[in-house]
Amino acid sequence: MDDDYYSIDAILAENQKIQCKFKQDIPDMGHLDGGSERDIKRDSKVQIPLWMAYVLIFSNFADFTIPGPFTTRVQNALKAEPTSVKLAGLVGAGGLWYGFGRVLLRLLDDEHGDLMSALLARTFRQRLLEVVDQAQHFAALGRASGGHSNDATQSFREGLDATERELFGLAQESSRRTKRWYESGEKGRK
Amino acid sequence: MALPQSLRTSVTPPELELIASEQLIDIVPLVTMEKTAFISGAYGPLRPPAKARVPLWIAVNLKLKKKCHIVPPEWLSVEFLQDRLSRETSNPGFSQLPFQFAEISKVILDIASDDLENPDKIRTLLKDIREARQSKSREGITKLDHSELGLSGLCSMEINEIRPFFIKGMNVLTKLIRDPEHPPNLDET
């Protein structure tokens, strides 16, 4: 989630592809599309990783469309019930939905950027409570028991974005540690 | 960093207990000791049956050797805790308790429950208070903001428990908000 040069998360987030539509012919760059064409034709649509898309978009070679994980359909689903959307399923490779969204922010103009930022922040905040709740629940169960949970909570856990997963771990560990201390008896003192 | 992952996020509860052991507490000594200098200060003299004020760790040490009785602090009593519990359940805010009440009460309950009146009742009350407060800090998560966090009334153990994921959560929010100076209103739409 950070901009650090060495951050694997940042690299992975930039590795997501977005669809770009070229505004002009570009000779000798057909290999970007992975096809056998020698040139990129005007108006052709190519999936380009974000890290390369910056240059193309800022130097006005191409336009881009809002990628799948952030379409209106997903936005509406998030608006309806943030905890029911499987964020990890929307983006491949580690499921960095927030990371992807944040990188995308840089490409958007002010108006769309604000909307996107609000979407990301609102989703994060509304899901956070459920993340922490479940983490504490699992900490209370202890390491050994698997625990029974119903389908909704299970499916929520499977859909956690990598950032949320990290938070889940933090909350679980901290809660487990505090619990262990509360339960430790007087034996240790003698 | 050479510290193991689990120690990087926050202080551990036993460390907090160690810090809380510097708090002064009254004891009734059963042995005589001259005024003695420690790194943190000089304590004593101990002259039974006069009360003496010493750090918790000395009290624990003497108590385990059966050389003193611990005089519990006034807040560690059924009446006081009952009152706090009713405030805790009726008011939305956190009620005022000593900052390190969790650590101190646990140490005293562990080693000196015979010096307390009705230790079991106190244990139950402390547990109820803890649970009431936990459900409040859980509600606080929904109000998490990228720029500020009020923790008035929370005690050290509770702060420590929520620290790792509150920090991380606020960090993430800061990154997600485009212009931290003028955040968009998140409650709209």
Number of helices of chain B: 7
Strand order of the largest sheet of chain B: 4-1-5
**Overall SS class of chain B:** mainly alpha
Could you describe the largest sheet of chain A, including whether it forms a barrel?
Answer: 3 strands, antiparallel
**Helix fraction of chain B by DSSP (H/I, runs of at least 4):** 40-55%
Could you give the order of strands across the largest sheet of chain A? Answer: 2-1-3
Q: What is the fold-level CATH name, i.e. the topology of chain B? A: Ribosomal Protein L9, domain 1
Which whole number gives the mean pLDDT of chain B? 85
> What separation lies between the terminal Cα atoms of chain B?
43 Å
In short:
The complex is a heterodimer of chains A (190) and B (189). Helix content of chain A is 53%, strand content 7%.
Secondary-structure topology with pairs:
The complex is a heterodimer of chains A (190) and B (189).
Chain A lengths: L7 H7 L2 E6 L22 E5 H9 L3 E3 L7 H9 L6 H4 L6 H9 L4 H32 L9 H8 L3 H22 L7
Antiparallel strand pairs in A: 1-2, 1-3
Helix pairs in contact in A: 1-5, 5-6, 6-8
Chain B lengths: L4 H4 L4 H8 L3 E6 L6 E3 L2 E3 L8 E4 H9 L3 E4 L6 H13 L10 H11 L7 H24 L13 H21 L13
Antiparallel strand pairs in B: 1-4, 1-5, 2-3
Helix pairs in contact in B: 3-5, 4-6
Protein name (chain B): Psf2-domain-containing protein
Organism (chain B): Thelephora ganbajun
Protein name (chain A): GINS complex Psf3 component
